[in-house]
Specification:
284 residues, alpha/beta, 2 domains, six-stranded mixed sheet, 11 helices, 10 strands, 22% strand, globular
Amino acid sequence: MPIRFEKVSHVYSDGSPFTYAALKEIDLEIAEGKLTAIIGATGSGKSTLVQHLNALLLPSNGKVEVLDRIISSDEKPTKLKSLRKDVGLVFQFPEYQLFEETILKDVAFGPKNFEFTEEEANAKAKKALAMVNIDPSYYEKSPLDLSGGQKRRVAIAGILAMDPKIIVLDEPTAGLDPQGAKAMMELFKELNTKYGKTIIIVSHDMEHVFNYCDDVVVLEHGSVRCHLSVDQFFKDSKWCEELHIIPPFVIQAKQMLKAKGIEIMADVKTVDDLAYEIAKKVKN
């Protein structure tokens, strides 16, 4: 069953001189079991949109359907605890939320709040830490002693320990070096393909969207501008040009080659494959 937004609007400071409509009658379906990117300019409504998925924000109008639950503007939501267990939301720079004495205690904190015993919570924490490739030798260390990328992984493990069906990540690679960002995106892809998690990522990095995501939703001024598969979105330069987005490197290279009369097949998506195709055409 897809995640569904029906005529969802969200207004900040409604009725005050500072009223601001962040979302405007959003109609959107996000497929379960896929890795979906939410993109758009600053202020387009991306973070506001995803915070509706576990009722951190409530619609001013309309309704959101998530995992057979309805969050609407007409009534106060119920069973929020179970919803927030099933829909894990990871904020930008989640490592700032690490607070326990040890890594294991920090990751076990969520399951303990959901009434698991300490033994059960620790078992879930260890499983989640293994999923994000944190070695057991680190479990008794302070989170403050970790590198930036390791802190990010521990923070994400804290969400995974609750075994959510849907994981929502707001700019999850912000502040990481290229190697750390790549490792993080590969982790999300593995969570999606190996563990069957629905992943929704707010991102500004088109290389990540192109290389790892299945679908892309573009927000513009609080409305959905388009919702396409990644292949459709990057098929030509139309959307990137209209949205003033710099295309991924492979797309740029294919466009430059096309201008020189060299056509590269649409299914070429990696630098290695592109180099192979260019070498083959030069040889011919």
